[in-house]
Design brief:
Elements lengths: L27 H9 L14 H4 L2 H19 L5 H15 L5 H11 L9 H8 L2 E4 L1 H9 L1 H9 L12 H22 L8 H22 L5 H26 L4 E16 L5 E17 L4 E9 L7 H5 L5 H13 L3 E9 L13 H11 L3 E5 L2 H4 L31 E2 L1 H23 L8 E3 L12 H4 L11 E3 L6 H15 L2
Parallel strand pairs: 1-3, 4-5, 6-7, 8-9
Antiparallel strand pairs: 2-3, 3-4, 5-6
Helix pairs in contact: 3-4, 3-5, 7-8, 7-16, 9-10, 10-11, 13-16, 16-18
The structure holds iron/sulfur cluster (SF4).
Length: about 500
Amino acid sequence: MNMAKPSDGLIVSYTACDEKGSPVQPSYLIHMLCKLFPAVPHRRSADSHSVEEVAAPADRHAVARVCADMLREYAGGRLDPEDKMRLAGLCRIMGSHDDGSTLDAVLNMSCAHYTHTPLSDSIAEGIYGTVMQTSVSRLERFAACAYAHFLSYGLRLRERPEYSFENNDMGDVYHKALEEFSNRVSESGAGWNGLGSEEAAAWADEIMDRLINTYGDTILISNNRNIALSDRLKRIVRRSVDTIRYQVGAGDFIPKFFERGFSESRSFTGEDGAEHTYRLTGKIDRVDICESDENRYLRIVDYKSGNRDFDIAALYHGLMMQLAVYMDAALKITGDTQPAGMLYYHMSDPVVSADADTTDEEAADLVRGELRMKGVVNSDPDIARLMDRTLTAGTGSKVIPLAYKKDNTPQAYSKAYTTDELKLMLEYTEKKMDELSSRIMGGCIEVHPAYMKRSDPPCRWCDYASVCHIASGIPGYERSEYDDDSADIPEAMRRSVKAQKDNNG
Ligand code: SF4
């Protein structure tokens, strides 16, 4: 309708190519107008007009960026003849624009090169303090990307909070529900093994009803979407307490602590030769202990709303240290205990395939198999059987990530290590934490994200992508590609720990 309103004249324009210079088809409206008004002149503007006519204001920056990218390729001798012609056309147009400022900006952009400039010692100390307060998730964030760590923990850039229920809130609700449930089990004196399934479901529902009606200024009952989500959360918590009841009952480990906080001060010698200190704090979701005739064994469990698994290669690079850090803290808290397992429990209510002949008990077994804990366990069959007494040669466990071949050795997909290897992981993790803390306090803020094939790249969900400019194609921005192969990791950890001991004399 607007096309019929002009009083003096109407100019209809369309783009002949996209921002990369590839041809695009005009809208069907152009064909209609050409048919209706065959005598109206049809003029190409690219050779004679300013950049305002070539690119709409909103696209101009993108065109300038493409132009800068092409200039860099040209300087590197990587531009083919056709693209050279396109680049020449674009430069001509930009050069003819008013005072030529657009071309100047493009030339500046094409020469841009990222170089890492660390924070000075005094700024780093001003931001992080003389004794840095940290957590394992913060150190993992630094290992994944020092710049994202700086923006988050140094500058504290945050998105504006909204009145909504997000994934983090979901984890918070699960943790609160399980903590309350576990305290109630402890107070009842019956223990997890003495708890009936109906009683467990009733307790879980009661706790969840209260949480749903009070959590986050009643956000969970604020609209129909959240009310439907609350039903799901309630179902998941009911399923989880039933599965945890089964997993505890399958072995001899007794849940001892829930949401157990810890705090530890650690020191290291910085590159400047000075002694630095940081304080690490955290909270372990669950600590289980088993007292056998000869030993006391320890297992820690972390509740996750996402399906996370342990990866020793990610631990090696500092990207997944949580279980090792928590196990180390739990061993120090309990004293004189041996590591048996560091595990994740996925809070979920999985759907399994079954046929008409499947009994309720068989279906429940399938669900338990799906909810088998992930992580890493002690490969010693005697210790493993303290976590699942049904585990025999040639069978797999529905409780822990371990299956034995007929000769009683772990199947290849099992995540099982010897006691010495587990202790080595803990020792290596301490060294890794010191190294990462040293780099943070040394002012490292480089844009150098860590990529591993098996895990999500850190840039995928990063809130700071528009701040760091890694996607701009400017040279100097690089990423660390880490090897996913885990076969040699224990040996690499051993060498690294030994080298540190040798250095320390
Ligand atoms: S987008 Fe990637 S490189 Fe940029 S801050 Fe985030 S993680 Fe780091």
